[in-house]
Write a structure and sequence with these properties.
The protein is of the alpha/beta class. The protein contains eleven helices and ten strands. Helix 1 crosses helix 7, helix 4 packs across helix 5 and helix 6 crosses helix 7. It is globular, with a radius of gyration of 19 Å.
Length: 281
């Protein structure tokens, strides 16, 4: 291949990279464009699906003002710390809240900084600080990590995993987890990642952390996930310690695990919860 041909093929990507790099003079600019997709407007509350809930205002570990919902469940059952994905906000997870409530679980779901009614701008370290603040609030209410299940979907899986490394829970549920931001970049934008991957501050390196988890683990993955390749979830599972369970949901994509998965998705949760039937306050 001639040098001119190579330049011609690279030119569009180089122009795109130049356009992306120009506004990336402030820390985290690329993350705001390619990793975080927050929505400030809450479109509904748990009351829309007949759930009792409490509005919660609390502080992240670094003092950032955050917002969340606390949904009480059956006494003696675990509480789920719900770390949502990178798009929308807590109001877009009502179906998941309804499912978890149907399993008699209490739930604390919160918005990261920059999402919903939470202040600030999202970042990797910021999301970790947000989860630490959520855990601190729960501990003030009498919930200890030994009575908690950490649940993270997609990006939230990385947040839940980091929290589990720091404060081991009774159990950890990762839904559509990726191995790392770098691996996602190589998968979806190989040339752009080669050119600008080094600019990203966010790493979310789940593959490097999963081996440090010894709590019971459930990984739920859509069979035809078009965003996070199922092979990534499988690689995390292979590196994880026992006890662990892998639930591959037939026909499910990234954003429809609950809907397409239906009974298979619910059964994955039910079987996992059998480990915690004896949990008591």
């Amino acid at each position: 291949m001639s040098r001119r041909t190579v330049i011609r093929q690279l030119a569009p990507a180089l122009l795109l990279a130049a356009g992306l790099f120009a506004p990336a003079t402030t820390e985290g600019a690329l993350e705001q464009r390619y990793i975080y997709f927050p929505d400030r407007q809450l479109v509904a509350t748990p009351a829309a699906v007949d759930l009792v809930f409490e509005e919660v205002r609390f502080a992240a570990a670094d003092g950032t003002a955050l917002h969340g919902w606390y949904l009480p469940g059956e006494a003696g059952r675990p509480l789920v710390v719900f770390c949502h994905g990178n798009a929308g906000n807590i109001s877009h997870r009502l179906e998941s809240l309804h499912l978890l409530h149907g399993l008699d679980l209490s739930v604390f779901i919160f918005d990261y900084r920059g999402y919903g009614h939470s202040e600030g701008t999202p970042s990797e370290e910021g999301t970790y600080a947000d989860a630490r603040g959520a855990l601190a609030w729960l501990q003030q209410r009498g919930w200890t990590p030994s009575r908690l299940l950490y649940f993270g979907e997609s990006l939230g899986a990385a947040v839940a995993l980091q929290l589990a490394v720091e404060q081991p829970p009774a159990g950890l549920v990762l839904e559509a987890p990726f191995t790392s931001i770098a691996a996602m970049g190589r998968h979806h934008y190989p040339l752009l990642n080669l050119l600008l991957g080094w600019v990203l501050n966010a790493r979310y390196d789940n593959l490097a952390k999963i081996g440090r988890i010894h709590s019971p683990l459930l990984i739920i993955q859509g069979e035809v996930d078009s965003i996070v390749p199922p092979a990534m979830a499988r690689r995390l599972f292979d590196r994880a310690n026992e006890p662990k369970t892998f639930a591959l949901i037939p026909g499910a994509d990234h954003n429809d695990l609950l809907f397409t998965g239906g009974r298979a998705y619910q059964e994955a949760w039910r079987e996992f919860l059998q480990h915690f039937s004896s949990a008591r306050p």
